[in-house]
């Protein structure tokens, strides 16, 4: 049950459940099923209808929304997306997360920071979650292109949506939903002023995309390039901690 406390010494109760389907995706799944049944029952086009029906199940699966066990810790930064760590780079945060937006709330500081990019294929869960607990200070949508989300320039050219979350002690984390080749809709669940918990659902991107996370200055990633991460569960970094971590692909 959501909200249950579990720990690394066996406290709590864990069992497998079928993941729920997010309401945003139910209409798409039902439309796909209706079209499939129309083709099968009305027109009798089995060679077309059965693949369409199978595709309908894929639509429901795309919008699955499983529960996650979110690690609790003051300095922990958790993954906002499921997928593969495709880029880890030193970059300047996006201008939209840095400049004064007129709200009186500051943005990210100037200077290069570590950016972790998580690529989501159509087979990954596409519900995105907040990396930290705090107040949502900014939600900025920017229209753009639909380049391959694996490319570095997708951070600046593609349709995207920036989030800025501020922790109670003033630490700010910026992260960005980026549309990809197939994605055509970025859907936010939160707005400026909302309080969010670490790992709380904040939005989704339909059909293949990427999420960039901008770590605080002086913070290194605790994940490796090519590693698969799980939204709300994988610890991306610990604020203020710097250490080289190496891995071997095998």
CATH class of the largest domain, named: Mainly Beta
User: Whole-Å distance between the termini?
Assistant: 36 Å
Q: How many alpha or pi helices?
A: 4
* Largest sheet entry: 8 strands, antiparallel
Radius of gyration: 19 Å
Mean pLDDT score: 89
CATH architecture call of the largest domain: Distorted Sandwich
Named CATH topology of the largest domain: Glucose Permease (Domain IIA)
Question: Uncertain runs with pLDDT below 50, 5 residues or more?
Answer: none
Strand tally, please?
Answer: 15
Q: How would you describe the shape?
A: globular
Q: What fraction strand?
A: 25-35%
Helix percentage range: 10-25%
- The helix-and-strand class reads alpha+beta
| Count of spatially separate domains | 2
Give me the strand/helix succession. Answer: EHHEEEHEEEHEEEEEEEE
| Strand order of the biggest β-sheet | 11-7-8-9-13-5-4-14
